[in-house]
Structure to design on (383 residues):
């Protein structure tokens, strides 16, 4: 078609929609949810407050609004009996696979077992109810699948506990230390949303078809599971562990660079300065303290010095993954839980984006330029 517009590969820099949810300013090292700095929110607010902000557009104005949102969210943590019955089979069948594979299947089943209907057929309140349902159940699915994989029974959610503390409770079956619960809560707040990334776009494409809330989130989890997106917190932690002591950092890093390898947890596609999430997570990690935290801080300094010397033309800094692994580890999460835990927070951003997309009631349907052999060719006679 003559009026088609050709865009850069990967749609880099192309604005495909308008959003009121948030944005990333890579040159400034700043990102925001609605009109607030995400880092400021993580410093002073609870996960549920920020969830309400991202989904509904405003922070709770008072305790009554806060209680109202908590009441909407807490029942969603309970998994339907059909899901609880099937989960052991899903976990057994996906043993050894990417833990996101089990989550993806669990969310799909949750949607079907909860009778979720196409977003197209729902009004705004019904869409919100379904999106909260999927988001609230995600940590319960992750925690239950983790426990089953260890031969343990799932732990029922505790309605008295806030979201992050309840997540730790459902994983460990122990009352969480408030400092660790707060540290994890701050990590979760910091990773709720981050611009128009691949999984968010995927969720919006599916939402634009009018499919149900679970379908959109299953697609987003699928996108997140790809190695270019799902992140490297466990690989960053492995690098720190492989280094082992501050004096080994420099030779180790130089050798990696000489071999042309990348240092996990450094560099970012959008940020050309400090990643604000990394700065805040370093503070969170240092507040908790510990040998691994001290080592990570030393390693970061060394990596920055070596990268500045060996890659002077490219500003490279620690990204969110570097301290994310350190913080999650310090909070008692095993490495295989790092990426599923990222999904626990990012599902809030996905569902907010799905709600926004569903309001537009326009299917996302771009075009592709056909570059194959010229049609119409005669169809060969089959032999
Ligand atoms: C995140 C990442 C994919 C962003 O990539 P990008 O912005 O597209 O950067 P490019 O791939 O174009 O790399 C540009 C230059 O910086 C270098 N570079 C980027 N990240 C690097 C890293 N972590 N270690 C060493 N060099 C790095 C590249 O080697 C390249 O240098 P060259 O031109 O001399 O070959 C990349 O920085 C990376 O692979 N980081 C490590 C993995 C990681 O931490 N992922 C989690 C991301 S949240």
């Amino acid at each position: 078609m003559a009026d088609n517009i050709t865009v850069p590969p990967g749609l880099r820099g192309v604005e495909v929609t308008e959003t009121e949810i948030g944005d990333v300013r890579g040159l400034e090292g700043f990102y925001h949810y609605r009109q607030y700095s995400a880092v400021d929110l993580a410093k002073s607010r609870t996960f549920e407050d920020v969830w309400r902000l991202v989904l509904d557009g405003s922070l709770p104005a008072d305790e009554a609004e806060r209680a109202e949102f908590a009441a909407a969210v807490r029942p969603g943590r309970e998994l339907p009996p059909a899901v609880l019955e099937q989960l052991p089979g899903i976990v057994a069948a996906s043993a050894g696979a990417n833990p996101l594979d089990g989550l993806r299947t669990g969310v799909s089943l949750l949607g079907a077992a909860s009778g979720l209907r196409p977003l197209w057929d729902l009004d705004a309140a019904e869409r919100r109810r379904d999106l909260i349902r999927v988001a609230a159940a995600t940590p319960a699915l992750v925690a239950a699948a983790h426990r089953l994989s260890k031969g343990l029974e799932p732990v029922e959610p505790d309605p008295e506990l806030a979201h992050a503390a309840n997540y730790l409770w459902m994983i460990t079956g122990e009352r969480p230390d408030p400092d660790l619960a707060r540290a994890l809560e701050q990590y979760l707040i910091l990773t709720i949303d981050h611009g128009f990334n691949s999984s968010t776009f995927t969720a919006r494409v599916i939402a634009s078809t009018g499919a149900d809330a679970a379908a959109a989130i299953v697609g987003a989890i699928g996108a997140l599971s790809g190695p270019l997106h799902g992140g490297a917190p466990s690989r960053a932690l492995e690098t720190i562990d492989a280094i082992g002591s501050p004096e080994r950092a420099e030779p180790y890093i130089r050798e990696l660079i000489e071999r042309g390898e990348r240092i996990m947890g450094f560099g970012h596609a959008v940020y050309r300065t400090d990643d604000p999430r990394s700065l805040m997570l370093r503070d969170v990690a240092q507040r908790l303290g510990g040998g691994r935290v001290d080592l990570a801080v030393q390693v970061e300094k060394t990596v920055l010095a070596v990268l500045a010397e060996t890659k002077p033309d490219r500003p490279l800094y620690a990204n969110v993954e570097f301290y994310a692994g350190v913080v999650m580890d310090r909070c008692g999460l095993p490495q295989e839980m790092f990426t599923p835990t990222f999904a626990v927070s990012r599902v809030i951003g996905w569902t907010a984006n799905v709600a926004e997309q569903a309001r537009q009631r326009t299917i996302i349907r771009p075009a592709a330029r056909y570059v194959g052999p010229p049609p119409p060719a005669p169809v060969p006679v089959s032999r």
